[in-house]
């Protein structure tokens, strides 16, 4: 698997974009019950505050530096080049790779409308891609029977890659909970379903390079996101600044040992 580097309390995978795509497709082809997290600032602050969620993130087989600040922290503290590997870029790259390799995919999350638009685009642009199933679960915790039925349906479809869009931290907890029960590589991609389906626009590349994507998301959903961004962005800047001061003073803070994610 890809080498990991610590950012705050979390271990983030490193490599070129093609390395991430190849590693995830390889996990899918092996039918290992693996999971992939796309880590942005919000996710790292969740991990910093909640030890159980930190374990979920650190035990993931692959953790992409989804946020530009996360990739920048790797470059700053570990002195190695690292591009941002965003879920919104990873989803189309993996779908293209799966089509070329003859691998199958399943979409889990969001709504029937979004899933229909998602499948429609793949059928038009990637006719060789085999989409073996979709599921839009209710926006509430599933009963044990409902969850068992969803797992049975996914395993009956037998996908190589299972894309999960339930939002952070729900999707990461869901993937960790189902590791060992679902025979696929699970990838948490959050809002990427909406963007790929064409139901939500994405900022142009120049604006993303200026780290403005959070501001655009805040503009789209101010009532839901203003508290999150006010707190998590400020907290991340504070924690990184404190680590940087310690780092420059020759007193880097101790990091937990890098976990080894099992292949189940």
UniProtKB/TrEMBL annotation:
The keyword Glycosyltransferase applies. PANTHER family: PTHR34136, UDP-N-ACETYL-D-MANNOSAMINURONIC ACID TRANSFERASE (PTHR34136:SF1). Pfam families: Glyco_tran_WecG. Coiled coil: none annotated. It comes from Hymenobacter algoricola. This is WecB/TagA/CpsF family glycosyltransferase. InterPro entries: WecG_TagA_CpsF. Keywords: Glycosyltransferase, Transferase.
